[in-house]
Amino acid sequence: MTETLESAPPPSPAADGPSRAPLPRLLRAELRWIFRRPRTLVVLGLLAAIPVIIGVALTLVDSPGPPDGGGDGDGGSLVATAAGNALVLPIAALAMALGLLLPLTAAMVGGDALAGEQAHGTLRGWLLAPVSRGRLLFVKAFGVATFAVCAAGVMALTGIVTGLVINGTDALVSLSGTTLTFPEALLKVAIAAGWVSLQLWAVGAVALAISACTEHPMVVLASVLGGVVVFSVLQFLDALDWLHPFLLNASWQDLADVLRDPMPGGALAEGALRAACYIAIALSLAYARLSTKDG
Amino acid sequence: MSTAVTGVDVPGTGASTPASPPAARTRGLRKTYGSTVAVDHVDLDIPEGAVLGMLGPNGSGKTTTIRMLLGLVRPTAGEASLLGHPMPAGAAHALPHVGALVEGPGFHPFLSGRENLLRLGAAEPKLSGREIPRAVDAALERVGLAGAATRRYRGYSLGMKQRLGLAAALLVPRRMVVLDEPTNGLDPAGTREVRSIIAELHAAGVTVLVSSHLLAEVEATCTHVAVLHAGTVVAQGELAELLESGSPGLVVSTPDAAEAVEALRRNRIPSRLTPEGVRVDLTATTAPEVVSALVHAGVSVHEARRARTGLEDLFARLTQQESNGEVSR
């Protein structure tokens, strides 16, 4: 094929200590891979469109102002409030999407991360390089986390912009009735986006754990989706209230707390802690499976 | 009658470099999936600098053995070592020096060939960040894919995919290259190119392990052969040695074949008629004696040559013989 002879004679045995590629390089390569994938870009684009669609729809429908109950925390009344309030729109959009749509996207990325790569036979390439399985999982978990931040971030961003375009910076009223300055409102949106990212990362970590056990990304997607639906149903069964603290989405409804002034932190902190536990357990399981898996 | 061939160790394995340790070695390697025994009692030695052809029918355990050697699969029992490091524990030491194409090429369809290799290059410990693009371009050039480097992998033909897999194995100068069915899907020209790449690697002192079911391929490129059947090694050693290990014989081409057989029988030399000529058994006599006996009997001889057992014969003999004895396993 060519006349160049690339392979050098074997180096001395002394030069064959353990060696590995620098971690930042692997992380960069992983992010490039995630964000070069058309699927990822389409999903992020659609997520970005959701707050815009909500904002435009509410404006056109010309819905009434604040809801009667002052917002009891669920997505529906939040959305009603979002019509006249640039602060509420991004958070309402996030709360709505967190129910099913955002977990779905996190599961998609988690499924592609290991199961998808396995299906394409590309996981082997890195294992043979070699990339140790622990580092591989770290890189994958980092990729999923980055996607989670991007997904929540992009929704928050278009939510803010749409809210500002429709309502300007007036009427940044919290659910408690106090008026907030613009930086205060931004901070609240950032907190909400960060909190949602963490929840998504937890979903993504679970997806990674399932992903390590299969080579069909569809299985990952279906299991996570099924899990979210089942968890949501379990929330409604009062007889099972002892189980509720163990359900990842137990505090997802409490996202609206961010909009209160002062912000009650209890439920949000509990939700964050729950997500952290899910991440720790799911990544441990993923590692246990990945480290013994045939490559 | 078959002497050294049926034994697992043929003397002379690694005779070319007696002092250096084997590039790869397995002892008592066994892998089971549930109740299925994929590989059992595999004792393989790959001498440093050899080109070892691994032969075997489909499902004989070639790929499983390779995957265990590379640390992708944990053996159920037994041990494997690669470049002197136990696998899979020593993967971080051994694998940077090993390039491999296992179980067909695996790449991302939405990335171009070049981007796919860049992603693999990022994980190569032996490449610094700056060297990656250069190494990738050189590897693409080497397998003849430079022209299609920026096209998406999705649109590659089977042969181009195979070439890209080969390029990935050659991304870094290696001490050992493992190629599992490298000529799958390649046209005759591509097959020749693979052969010349293997020859180049061999000339540079790189140990090569090629698995194939194309016997001609192996016969043309390899210095050593290991034959697997039903999960075990049924023969291994230097190619030339294995080929000669059958019963020695001489093939005589003559216009009066019947007369020749008659003349030889008078001299108590066993022989028989075959389509290629008269085949003479040399276990009890020598070639000059045969020729002189024929000439004295007035039989004209066009040509007399050593009968080499073709790899195909050898392969057929080994795998059939073994399957008779080992069906019950």
TrEMBL record, chain B:
Q: Which domain of life is it from?
A: Bacteria
Q: Where is this region: Disordered?
A: 1-28
Q: Which InterPro entries match?
A: AAA+_ATPase, ABC_transporter-like_ATP-bd, ABC_transporter-like_CS, P-loop_NTPase
Which residues fall in a compositionally biased region of kind Low complexity?
11-26
Molecular-function annotations in GO: ATP binding; ATP hydrolysis activity
PANTHER family linked to this entry: ABC TRANSPORTER, ATP-BINDING PROTEIN
User: What is the protein's given name?
Assistant: Multidrug ABC transporter ATP-binding protein
Provide the species name.
Prauserella muralis
